[in-house]
Amino acid sequence: MTPLKWFYGFLKRYRNLMILGIFLTTLIAALSIVNPYLSGIIVDDVVQAGNYDLLPKLIACLLGVTLLNSVLRFLYQLVFETASQGTLYDMRSTVYRKLLEEDFDFYNKKRTGDLMSRQTGDMDAIRHFVAYDIYAVYQNVLLFAFALLMIFTVNTKLALCMLVVLPFTALATFKQSREVKPAFQRNRNCFSSLNAFVQENISGNRVVKAFAKEDYEKEKFQIENDRFKDSQIRGSKVWMKYVPIFEILSYALTVILMLYGGYMVIQEEITLGDLVKVNGYLWMLNMPLRMAGWWVNDIQNFITSVEKIYSTYSEEPRVRTPRFSWNHGDSFGYPHDKIRGDVEFKGVSYQADGEDIVRDISFRVKAGQTVGIIGSTGSGKSTLMNLLCRFYDTTSGQVLVDGTDVRQMDLYNLRDNIGMAMQDVFLFSDTIEGNIAYGRPDCSFDQVKQAAIMADANHFISALPEKYDTIVGERGVGLSGGQKQRISLARALLKDPSILILDDTTSAVDMETESYIQKQLKTIKQDCTVFIIAYRISSIKDADLILVMDGGRIIESGTHEELAAAGGYYARTFRSQYGEIPYDMIREHKGLA
Ligand code: ATP
Ligand code: MG
């Protein structure tokens, strides 16, 4: 499918409105020939022939046509505006739905600002095309054709003479369109880049301030801003270069009419009324010639935008529900089937950009068991959980949930059964209640409160002036790191999941709070499989299975007692954290000291 065909798919839904709009536009173009025609009659029959009785009727006709014209203009603009807003509405929803379906890989590669530009600037270029350019181009082609036809009926030689300018206009339009397309593409890219820069800097503003890098960022912005300005100016110069050419060509018509038409009146080949008539049609010939350059710009702009949006839209997520298990499109919002929670990794390896991230991971846990994962930073702990949630697909090996390969499962169903408190806590700018209830918006307030109590969040939330109705800023601004973690934990717990993943969830809370949370976790349903990723031995020592990771591999596994006795990495970490050996020794062992 080509980008334009894809766009047509949206426009087609408003076919009836568009047909009505085109019909109204045709009517207006046809009406436009009436007034100059009547003016010619007034000059010939009323002024020159002295037939004054005709005047009131002709004036009434002129006024009637003008009035009708105005009403029709209002109507067709309404029609095109409705069609354009409708087309855009559908397009925005479709593109946004697709964005939601895209996988982690897609978002890793794309810049937020670029994606925002697709949904704003590019969409607006399309709206402008549907709301204005379609009818404007069509109407002006008609006006030009009608005007020419009327001039031919007045005098063939005069009409042919006026046609002389046409090949020049066509040539200028063609040349301009070839130059304008790359200029517009450059403009769009610079706009996207500027947008992405601003978006990143606003999000990362706290880091900028913390490092006192305002001047550095200002300079970087200056470069982006200059690039955008230069690109805009270069783009403008392309069409500005052609403006005088189009102007000259349109004035050439007036000159031809005055010289040749005037000569013909003197020679009595045409009447003075005919000259007035043709003069009245002149704007209809002029307008398309003058505007041709603008429309070429707009159309190129529109094509560039459709191509850009389509190229984002057409990227298919690699991680998706297999077709044979689709029972409801892409399964958003469908009631889920409860999974049991048995998890098995069978010889799992995962590579990104040709590099091994995790290798040969094999372990098995039954529903209801708790798994602790510990290991140095960057050892692949979060990656294991990403593979379990199928945020990425394994390069080799299988991740099985309840004995089924996750690649064969309904993606929505799998994830809906997993409660995850991510390492990088993200809160929406919403109330605390809204954030906790994110996974279960239909739950009662008591359930929200219960989840908050389990996550030890209730008492600090209750101390806030607006309690659960407190709006947290973007990404949870206004809350401490530990408070955000606890809200994120409550959000995961409220889902009542079959598999609960806590990725570094208690790293920012004090030991007392952590121990309280652990006690609460023990009270959650027996059949929930829990994965706890932590640096503190205290967080995981009661787990049924502890996996120790290093360099993407499991280097030790077993229970706390087994591992503590084995004398490996775990035992050293344990003794260091419990004050028996200095932490430096572990670093030495790992070659980090
Ligand atoms: P931490 O304890 O710091 O959270 P981790 O054990 O959770 O570390 P992972 O997040 O699993 O570590 O990352 C493991 C390695 O994989 C890191 O070296 C990281 O740079 C790399 N990595 C993670 N995700 C990707 C990705 N999408 N593309 C390329 N490399 C990745
Ligand atoms: Mg991690």
Shape, per Cα inertia axes: elongated
Low-confidence stretches: 328-334, 582-587, 589-593
Radius of gyration: 36 Å
Largest sheet: 6 strands, mixed
Strand order within the widest sheet? 6-7-8-3-9-10
Count of DSSP strands: 10
**Which molecules are bound in this entry?**
adenosine-5'-triphosphate, magnesium ion
Number of helical regions: 22
Our measurement of the CA-to-CA distance between the termini, rounded to an integer number of angstroms, reads 57 Å
**Assembly classification:** single chain
> What class do helices, strands and sheet pairing give?
alpha/beta
Average pLDDT works out at 86
Binned strand content: 5-15%
Q: What is the share of helical residues?
A: 55-70%
Structure, explained:
Helix content is 63%, strand content 10%. It is of the alpha/beta class and 593 residues long. The strands form two sheets. A six-stranded mixed beta sheet has the order 6-7-8-3-9-10, sandwiched between helices. Helix 8 packs antiparallel against helix 10 and helix 10 packs antiparallel against helix 11 (272-313). The protein is elongated, with a radius of gyration of 36 Å. Bound molecules: adenosine-5'-triphosphate and magnesium ion. Magnesium ion (MG) is lined by residues 381-382, 423, 503.
